[in-house]
Design brief:
By secondary structure, the protein is an alpha/beta fold. Helix content is 29%, strand content 19%. The protein has two domains: 4-192 and 287-321, Rossmann fold (3-Layer(aba) Sandwich); 202-279, no CATH class. The protein has helices at 15-21, 46-56, 106-118, 134-137, 139-149, 218-231, 273-279, 292-300, 305-321; strands at 4-9, 24-26, 29-31, 36-42, 78-81, 88-91, 97-100, 122-128, 152-160, 171-179, 262-264, 267-269. The protein has a six-stranded mixed sheet with strand order 4-1-5-8-10-9, with helices on both faces. A two-stranded antiparallel sheet has the order 2-3. β2 and β3 (29-31) form a beta hairpin.
Length: 322
């Protein structure tokens, strides 16, 4: 079977890429190799790039993707990327078109630029569920149209990581496009767990003993308890169920935020970086480097590798059959 070459944009610490490559273990299950090789990675965050390089042996190109000419990328079959979505606007023209609010909005168009100029066989894009309702639901259809206009047959869906064996309720929009001449009719992988009662529990990935620095002070707990009912804070997780979505600002989590925390041994605490990695379904041998703050940010921004493995598996099978 020919190895499929992947160019990974906005790669972060590599959650997407762990899933694409496969050949890893998580919670006692082995995820086979997908016959894919990462030949190029790009991200502007130096800390995330350091984690990526440590685990993949590839030094990501950390230039602004807008300054990278498409011909600088090596040959690749699949383009992946989780582009920022906070910055879109709808320009009041007839017909309306997609605009930008700030520089981050440009990054989506850079992905389309590379698709048009290099014409890989396939792309896989990812984003938060909120992209579906951005700009009063007007932005997303235009995003899909831009991908179509780049020469691809496009499908999208919302996947919940918990339905694929990840101990986290994390919903993400996945967009897949195959080059039109390939005439591939893609369908997304069905959930492997239909019954929510069978979802992987948070307790399968948390530690029983952690250093004191991860526990909140008595003063912080007292302040939270005073306003708990009115403010719906102190969101201790039910460890018999999947965790709520972990985010990029866990390094600064407080009991007055909406971030998930643990109530353990009669005390409140935050997750360790390794626990966050497990909640995201990174394998145990995935190495974390840099400051804890950098680790939390990179892990919180990542795609759950196990969930993405199922998407990559389906994509790889279809391309191999072609």
């Amino acid at each position: 079977m020919e190895t499929l070459r992947v160019a990974s944009l906005f790669c972060g610490c590599g959650g997407t890429d762990v899933g694409l490559k496969g050949a890893f273990d998580f919670l006692g299950k082995h995820y086979d190799a997908n016959g894919m090789e990462i030949v190029y990675a790009n991200d502007i965050d130096d800390n995330a790039c350091a984690i990526f390089e440590k685990n993949f042996g590839i030094k990501p190109d950390n230039r602004d993707i807008r300054t990278v000419a498409s011909e600088e990328l090596p040959e690749f079959d699949i383009l992946t990327g989780g582009f920022p979505c906070q910055s879109f606007s709808i320009v009041a023209q007839n017909p309306p078109r997609l605009g930008i609010k700030d520089d981050r909005g440009m990054l989506f168009f850079e992905m389309c630029r590379i698709l048009r100029e290099r014409k890989p066989k396939c792309f896989i894009a990812e984003n938060v569920k909120g992209i579906l309702t951005a700009n009063k639901k007007a932005a997303f259809p235009l995003i899909l149209q831009e991908f179509e206009n780049s020469g691809y047959d496009v499908k999208y869906t919302v996947l919940n990581a918990a339905a694929y064996g990840v101990p986290q309720k994390r919903e993400r929009v996945i967009i897949v496009g195959f080059r039109k001449d390939l005439k591939i009719d893609f369908s997304f992988p069905a959930p492997i767990i239909d019954d929510e009662e069978q979802y992987e529990a948070l307790q399968s990935v948390i530690e029983t003993e952690v250093p004191e620095k991860y526990f909140f002070s008595e003063k912080a707990v007292a302040g939270m308890m005073k306003n708990r009912e009115a403010m719906n804070k102190g969101r201790a997780q039910d460890v018999t169920k999947p965790c709520n979505t972990v985010g990029a600002h866990l390094a600064k989590v407080s009991l007055n935020s909406t971030d998930p925390v643990l109530f353990s041994g009669g005390r409140y605490r935050r997750f360790t970086p390794r626990e966050v990695a497990r909640i995201q379904s990174f394998p145990e041998d995935f190495e974390l480097v840099g400051s804890e703050g950098a680790q939390y940010r990179a892990l919180g921004n990542a795609i759950p590798p196990v969930m993405f493995w199922y998407v990559a598996r389906k994509v790889g099978e279809l391309l191999s059959n072609k």
